[in-house]
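Researcher: Batch entry, complex prediction.
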Amino acid sequence: MLTIGQLAAHAGVTAKAIRVYHAKGILPEPERDASGYRRYGAQAIIDLTRIVTLAQAGVPLARIPGTLDADADRFGQEIAQIESELRTRIRELEQRRARLRHLDQPHRLCLPPEAIEYMERVRVIGLSERHEHAIRDGFILSYALAPDITRIILPARTALLDDTEYVAVLRAYDDAIEWAPDDPRLEKIADAAARIAERMTMVSDLPDFDQVSPETIDLLSGHVGIESAAWDRLDELLHERLVPGRDAPTTAIGEM
Amino acid sequence: MLTIGQLAAHAGVTAKAIRVYHAKGILPEPERDASGYRRYGAQAIIDLTRIVTLAQAGVPLARIPGTLDADADRFGQEIAQIESELRTRIRELEQRRARLRHLDQPHRLCLPPEAIEYMERVRVIGLSERHEHAIRDGFILSYALAPDITRIILPARTALLDDTEYVAVLRAYDDAIEWAPDDPRLEKIADAAARIAERMTMVSDLPDFDQVSPETIDLLSGHVGIESAAWDRLDELLHERLVPGRDAPTTAIGEM
DNA sequence: CTTGATCTTGCCCTTGGGGCAAGGCTGCAC
DNA sequence: GTGCAGCCTTGCCCCAAGGGCAAGATCAAG
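Model: Structure tokens for the complex:
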């Protein structure tokens, strides 16, 4: 006959855990010896081992008596279900382990595959970190606010990166961040941007355009988180060129 | 900008979890809007996603800031360590899943491989369930009390099962459980048992015999949990035959 | 204007034990 | 026999990581 400590050591749990199982009625209280010590026999070893096996498989203690006391039919079903839950948990853990590798690359954690590809392609262009993060953060926000729209927009955006003139404009914007708003070079950048914008798809061509909030459209224009007087001025110059008659023009996809 | 509910849904957690992360200082409190609502931006999405990625990988919340704020060197080490812990946990879960299959066969859960093999071989002999469980429970108790001794004894015990006369005696004991203690057939059984015992290894031949408690030796004789007047009488008859001069004879391994 | 969903803070509840206190046993050494 | 270390007993509070509910403010839509 075993004491509680011997039983616990043999089952790989603590004596406290066994007392908890007694208190919850999961494991019957054994006989006491003359001095009040619990004394366990073979059946207690069997019962405890079954309990521990289930508990370690993630079964809540409250569910264990129902499982162990079930008749053969239901017992089999219960075990099969517990096994399948456990398989699911293992698969989840494996996926979570895979995600750990990307912990230092926020875009890989927070964006859908299309956007990850886009950001990888932007990276090789070699913009400033600040500009790249601004683009990334715009996508992260717009993906959180309107995942569907964001994913619809992405293929066209990615295709644009094959356009050397577009990439040149991106680089020019990058250079211009710190310029004064009256810098004369801004005119040339705005000219180039306007030429591109004219042959680009407009946001208003999207299906369900009327359901896209103005905020999302702003986000997709890529100016999130950068305060630049030169860029503000570039917005004005671009608007002049694109829609001379209006003062609140439609934003082009990929404008920037 | 997102509300707490939008952020939570996007990150796959509850709003309450986010408030907990704020309270623990893991995720910085964001700005509030005019009515006191929390408003989250892209950086909060990134931060939360990193936190959730670690938390779901099983990292305790208290350890998360230290991991995320570490410099590149330590960060890499931390991630590698977390990954390896996670791998270990996954392997453990797979082993636990395997054990679930044996939940209805106590000997497979509670005994070492040698004893499992022994019990499988006893099963095909076709003893009564009661007798078989008595043998099993004896091993379970002795394995819990003295695992080393029990495993040392097992090969000889298993070899005995190849002895047809020994198996015949086992079956005779099984038949005799309910007999009256003065049943004349008991004499023949005791004769056969004595012939076997004489050519068997004695417990006293074991290395470290003096460290084996008498209780363990009793357990290994296989009478655990069965109250049978006939068996008690068989014990007496056997002792007469084996050690006529003594009244407390050494128990033979495999006596039964 | 109402209604239902969402936000705020604050508080207690849960699971599966861990840890400590204060006292009683036990077994071994001296 | 006397110590003393190590085990056992009960009872109590504590922990992580939220869940749930209350009571009130706010928002969005019909």
